[in-house]
Amino acid sequence: MTALLETRQLHKHFGGLSAVADVSIEVMAGEIHCLIGPNGAGKSTLFKLVAGTYAPSEGEVLFRGENVTHRKPYERVGRGMSIKLQVPSVFRELPVAQNLEISLQRTLSGSAMAAEKARLLEFLQLKDDADKPAGILAHGQQQWLEIGMALALKPTLLLLDEPTAGMSPQETERTGDMIKSLNAQGMTVLVVEHDMTFVRQIAQRITVLHLGRVFAQGTTDQVIADPRVEEIYLGKGHGHH
Fold first, then answer.
1. Rounded to whole angstroms, how far apart are CA atoms 221 and 215?
2. pLDDT tens across 66-94, in order?
3. Could you tell me the sign of the dihedral formed by the alpha carbons of 56, 23, 199, 31, in that order?
4. Where are the beta strands (DSSP E) in 58-197?
5. CATH fold group of domain 3-80+155-234
6. How many Cα atoms sit within 13 Å of 54 on the Cβ side?
7. CA nearest 83: which of 223, 206, 228, 189?
8. pLDDT tens digits, one per residue of 107-166
9. C-alpha to C-alpha distance for 90 and 99, rounded to whole angstroms
10. Domain with CATH 3.40.50.300 in the chain
């Protein structure tokens, strides 16, 4: 297996504070990789370093074998990364279908665009809501529309930042099914997530961050069975999340 995405000894300092220290991870082509860790572990910072929103203080980001450390976010997107951040960026006043068109028009037009739009609406279970303004969708549906907008860019790597935040258990499970279905079609997915039930549902490999460093890394079974991981999540004095 080849690494589609690799970080090498990434560091990110904010003033005197080290948000990420010496983080090296590999996301293999074709896998669902989850990045987990307690609050303040550095997950969002690492995500922004991968996406290009932040430049690292030290270290490198490689994507598809190319050093993209100093590439802008849009350049990374052009090379096949697609990102869904926590904060929804749907065009609230525009219809659902038009939100998808805005993303699709980068790569498609005419009947090809119409066909792909129909396929995405079906996949996202938003067909009945296609003509509604995106702003009136339920929270979970807005999140799915966002995933659809990221998918419209035909990425080789889909980056999802806490995609199930604020979702009901049913919506969360449906989101997991969507991600697994995309992965079965060959897409590589990197997910930053808190919800361990969801992580168990989708992850093939897991990286645990703790205090800005890689704390554990391996297959889902290995990481979940690691007593040290349970310790930082549920351990003494941490309370139950």
1. 16
2. 999 999 999 999 999 998 876 667 899 99
3. positive
4. 58-63, 66-67, 81-84, 157-161, 188-192
5. Rossmann fold (3.40.50)
6. 21
7. 189
8. 899 999 999 999 999 999 999 999 999 999 999 999 999 999 999 888 999 999 999 989
9. 7
10. 3-80+155-234
By DSSP bridging, strand 157-161 and strand 66-67 are unpaired
- Full-model pTM: 0.91
- What letter represents residue 230's amino acid? E
Closest C-alpha among 63, 59, 51 to residue 27:
63
Q: Are 235 and 210 in contact, with CB atoms under 8 Å apart?
A: no
> What's the 3-state SS for 64-93?
CCEECCCCCHHHHHHCCEEEECCCCCCCCC
Q: What are phi and psi of 149, to 5 degrees?
A: -65, -35
User: Tell me, what's the pLDDT at 88?
Assistant: 63
